[in-house]
Amino acid sequence: MATKQSKPSLKPRRRDKFAFGIWCVMNQGADPFGVATRPQITGLEAVKGLGKRGVYGFEYHDNDLWPLKASAAKQRAVVKDVKRIMRTTGIRCTAATTNLFTHPAFKDGAFTSHDPKVRAYAVQKAMVNIDVAAELGARVYIFWGGREGADVDIAKDPVEALKRFRDCINFLSEYVLEQKHRMVFSIEPKPNEPRSDTYLPTAGHALAMIATLDHPEMVGVNPETAHIKMAGLNPLHEFAQCLEAGKLVDIHLNGQKPLRYDQDMSFGCDNPKEALLVVKLLKDYAYAGTKTFDAHPYRTEADPWDFVERCMRAYKAYEIKAEQADADATLCRMLEQLERTGGASWARLLGAYSAAGAEKLRKAKFNPDKLAKRKLLYEQIDQRLTEILLGLV
Predict the structure, then answer these.
(1) Residue 307 — φ and ψ, nearest 5°?
(2) Do residue 361 and residue 272 come from a single domain?
């Protein structure tokens, strides 16, 4: 008698390493066209609520936890409370960042501001929170340049602005090394909003900047699904480029319809196949970092907790589908056929350069008409993945 197969579990576990920015659950549902639709919860309540629901980790901005002008004593009291919640619930602080975008002082940027006093204040603010983040155990410190951009291009030299950005990151890198903090930095790209154009708008821009830093080995990228799609780009490709470069130190997952304002919807709600392929990429290449959700509950929700549960269950569901795709004999056979055709000897020849190999390649005879007749299976492959996703096979 055939045994009934158990239904795959969507229940999140701490080993899944799911995390949330606490600003996500603190969001009250306000937007430029309407006021808040749910009560405000504090940063401490956000950390506690996530911890009680078995979430692995949290990320925070400094001013999510304490007011901008809080005294040192007030800040220490908050940190003490956070550490108590961490001990009680088991939740970890996985990453932190500095709010360098809310206060009007940063209206023309923080690290790229024309005013050197503003730049100095921004670096000071980051230093203070870097120390707190290290105390809380964060291993990643994120730099999202929300105001690092331009609205009037002639008013801001982009070459000089990028130099200023580099100088600030270099300064903070030296500070972290001197303090012996165990953390890496991460640049979070975004193409626009709130500025008309933001510096370092894509993963490629961030990777190029990192290569010019004094300590590129301690700086990576945390791409965000929504930011990528705001530029009309492909999240799978942006995540893959960071992975291939060894620079994917954190990820921000959410949903977004392309070429629109930053919507911050739940992960995978807008494009299931795209979400499946991102999850499959992370699984296939054994991404070991935190899987962080940076999204907002719908404005219609009375509280943020169904949203938290949904994001984690959605990722688990896509993970199950990714496993099914990897195990599907028909799909695997077609994918292998793509790789087999053409001959391994030519692939080896195009590996490490040698003079003999170059000479062999120069003398080789190719028939482009014959090469053009190779049958590719993209329609069949895409349809098979669609049927797996829809549960039809």
Answers:
(1) -65, -45
(2) no
Pairing label, strands 149-150, 197-198: antiparallel
Q: Which residues share a beta bridge with 59?
A: 21, 95
Q: How many domains does the chain have?
A: 2
Euclidean distance between CA atoms 113 and 150, whole angstroms: 10
Burial letters for 52-65: b for 16+ Cβ neighbours within 10 Å, e otherwise? Answer: ebbbbbbbbbbbbb
Rounded to an integer, what distance in angstroms lies between the CA atom of residue 272 and that of residue 266? 11
141 DSSP β-pair partners: 96, 185
Please tell me whether residues 34 and 126 are part of one structural domain.
Answer: yes
- Same-domain pairing of 269 and 339: no
Active-site residue identified among 62, 64, 262, 270: 64
pLDDT digits (tens, 9 = 90+) for 333-376: 999 998 876 677 888 888 899 999 999 999 999 999 998 998 89
- 318 and 340 belong to one structural domain: no
Q: Are residues 262 and 182 located together in one domain of the fold? A: yes
Region for residue 325 given its phi and psi (left: phi exceeds 0; alpha: psi -120 to 50; beta: otherwise): alpha
Tokens 């690290």 belong to residue: 111
Per DSSP, the three-state class of 347 is helix
Q: Which one of the listed residues 16, 31, 61, 382 is annotated catalytic?
A: 61
363 with 266, same domain: the answer is: no
The whole model's pTM is what? 0.95
Contact (Cβ atoms closer than 8 angstroms) between residue 338 and residue 376: yes
* Buried-exposed string 160-186: b where 16+ CB fall within 10 A, e elsewhere: ebbebbbebbebbbeebeeeebebbbb
Please report, for residues 17, 123, 355, the alpha-carbon distance to residue 250 in angstroms, rounded to integers and kept in the order given: 11, 22, 41
Same domain, residue pair 145 and 186? yes
Same domain, residue pair 340 and 226: no
Buried b (16+ CB within 10 A) or exposed e, 215-232: beebbbbbbbbbbbbbbe
The whole domain housing 336 covers 329-389
For residue range 213-257, what is the model confidence (pLDDT) as tens digits? 999 999 999 999 999 999 999 999 999 999 999 999 999 999 999
The letter for the amino acid at 367 is N
Q: Specify if 7 maps to a domain.
A: no
Q: Give catalytic status of residue 64 as yes or no.
A: yes
